[in-house]
Amino acid sequence: MALAAGRAMLMRSGVRLGTQAAARGGNGARRFMNHRVVVEPNTVPGVAVIKFKNPPVNSLTLEFLTEFVICLEKLENDKTFRGVVLTSDCPGIFSAGLDLREMCGKNPAHYAEYWRAVQEMWLKVYLSNLVLVAAINGTSPAGGCLIALSCDYRVLADNPRYRMGLNETLLGLVVPFWFKDTLVNTIGHRASERALQLGLLFPPAEALQLGMVDQVVPEDQVQSTALSVMTQWLAIPDHVRQLTKNMIRKATADHLIKHQEADIQNFINFISRDSIQKSLQVYLENLKQKKH
Ligand SMILES: CCCCCCCCCCC/C=C/C(=O)SCCNC(=O)CCNC(=O)[C@H](O)C(C)(C)COP(=O)(O)OP(=O)(O)OC[C@H]1O[C@@H](n2cnc3c(N)ncnc32)[C@H](O)[C@@H]1OP(=O)(O)O
């Protein structure tokens, strides 16, 4: 169902599914390639590595979200895969979060389509039957952080330049309740109150201390650590682990599912405000200015 919706979304946004290619890597493994998401089976049996490849900053465009959900769905339906490592192909950036241009200067129908895609991506990641380990090899603000927080385990590169957190208030935005719930479930209520209101982005040592990530390791060991953690998680039989995960996460996901349409309407109303549009334009302009 989500796959069909995703395909329709891809068609609407002009992405041709026919451009997906399959090739054999050096180790003979099958390697699926989309435009923006690359899926590589790994040396660890049953484990795939998804690499975000939406340069320059892996922002979560509509096309990216659609490809990502389709990739996850394919892996879930392929019983040879039990776990996935999520990482980035863009140096120094895991994901810059939601694509600001998708939320700027567009019409309500576009905002509705985009927000539904964000919701569907989160539900797919948060409730995945697969073991998901985030190998965070770069900065991950807002929506990028949300993806990592929705995984089962997080390994972050020990690079003081990398920052992680939900910084929405710094953009003049209110964090959606399900972003908030995901953070609260990870670092607790008090730490979330402070982090969310101040829009804090944490360097690795602080992210570890807060419990926002589970491990901080040297940059060149992020993926190998994620794979060895995966081995530990895969030692548990899938059905008991999946039932346990579902038991823990279901209430949080159901909260959004129950209010999904209202959440879309709230998003449209909020993002369409002149003041919010101005804030986003200024923020984008500032990103440009900092280069000069
Ligand atoms: C009543 C309540 C109702 C509530 C309803 C909900 C309300 C709305 C909720 C919305 C939730 C939003 C979640 C988000 O994820 S918002 C996005 C947050 N992301 C950021 O703040 C990151 C911004 N980017 C950066 O800080 C830097 O770009 C970064 C550190 C990631 C990389 O820096 P670097 O120097 O390497 O690269 P540049 O800054 O030069 O960027 C390169 C180009 O990429 C563009 N860019 C960057 N980030 C984004 C983005 N998120 N979306 C779109 N485009 C982005 C940047 O502008 C540069 O473009 P140009 O080359 O054209 O200048």
Q: Output the radius of gyration.
A: 18 Å
Q: What is the strand tally? A: 11
The sequence of SSEs as H and E is HEEEEHEEHEEHEEHHHEHHHH
The helicity comes to 40-55%
Number of helices: 11
Q: Would you give an account of this structure?
A:
The radius of gyration is 18 Å and the shape is globular. The strands form two sheets. Strands 1-2-3-4-5-7-9-11 form an eight-stranded mixed β-sheet, with helices on both faces. Helix 1 runs antiparallel to helix 2 and helix 5 (177-187) runs antiparallel to helix 9 (238-258). It is built from eleven helices and eleven strands. The chain is α/β, with parallel strands linked by helices and 292 residues long. Helices cover 49% and strands 16% of the residues. It has helices at 2-12, 62-77, 108-126, 143-149, 177-187, 189-198, 204-210, 222-234, 238-258, 260-271, 274-289, and strands at 21-24, 30-33, 37-41, 47-52, 83-88, 92-93, 131-136, 138-141, 153-157, 164-165, 215-217. A hairpin with a 5-residue loop joins strand 3 (37-41) and strand 4. Bound molecules: ligand L4XM7KOE. Residues 56-57, 59, 93, 96-101, 139, 141-143, 167-168, 171, 173-174, 176, 266-267, 270-271, 284, 287-288, 291 line the site of ligand L4XM7KOE.
